[in-house]
């Protein structure tokens, strides 16, 4: 029997358990354009992020362009959203951000998280606070960044983040006649 799958992604408050780990499903290879664009967009003028000639003189870069750390943080955050904050209504904070290994143009970044705490909100009924520790890894398994993050997440009972898909005026989607 065919099943109708509603438009729904992510987790709700009751889905989180302390100690659960999530290997977030996407990886992303960072291009030189990614690094240059973010550096320019954020007015970061450190040439190690966009000048290959100058980067060769940096003892940390090993002669390669170092990825802007703002991009590294934003990318790992984005990779983690599907499991940790797809349905969040607010970011509450990041602590202990650590950049533990250089990221270079051409590296592929992955992310994983572990749930540290889940609790109901004291001031917002139907919502709760989820705290996770997230780390980013490069293609070699080197940890490149980590942090602890708290987000406010609704319970399913609130209806937040659900039933938003429009109803087709022409009726439900069906198999065409053969």
From TrEMBL:
Domain of life of the organism encoding this protein: Bacteria
Gene3D superfamilies given in the database record: Hotdog Thioesterase
Any Pfam family matching the protein: MC_hydratase
Protein name listed in UniProt: MaoC family dehydratase
Taxonomy of the source species: Bacteria, Bacillati, Actinomycetota, Actinomycetes, Micromonosporales
């Amino acid at each position: 029997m065919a099943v109708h799958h509603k438009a729904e992604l992510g987790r709700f408050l009751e889905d989180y358990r302390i100690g659960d780990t999530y290997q977030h499903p996407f990886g992303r290879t960072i291009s030189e354009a990614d690094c240059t664009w973010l550096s320019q967009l954020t007015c970061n003028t450190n040439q190690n992020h966009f000048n290959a000639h100058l980067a060769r003189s940096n003892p940390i870069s090993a002669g390669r362009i170092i990825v802007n750390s703002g991009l590294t943080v934003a990318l790992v955050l984005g990779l983690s959203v599907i499991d940790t904050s797809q349905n969040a209504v607010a970011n509450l904070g990041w602590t202990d951000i650590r950049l533990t290994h250089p990221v270079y143009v051409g590296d592929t970044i992955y992310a994983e998280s572990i749930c540290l705490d889940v609790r109901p909100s004291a001031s917002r009924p139907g919502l709760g606070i989820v705290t996770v520790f997230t780390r980013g890894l490069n293609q070699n398994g080197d940890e490149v960044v980590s942090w602890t993050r708290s987000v406010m997440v609704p319970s399913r009972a609130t209806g937040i983040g659900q039933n938003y898909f429009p109803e087709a005026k022409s009726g439900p989607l069906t198999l065409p006649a053969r």
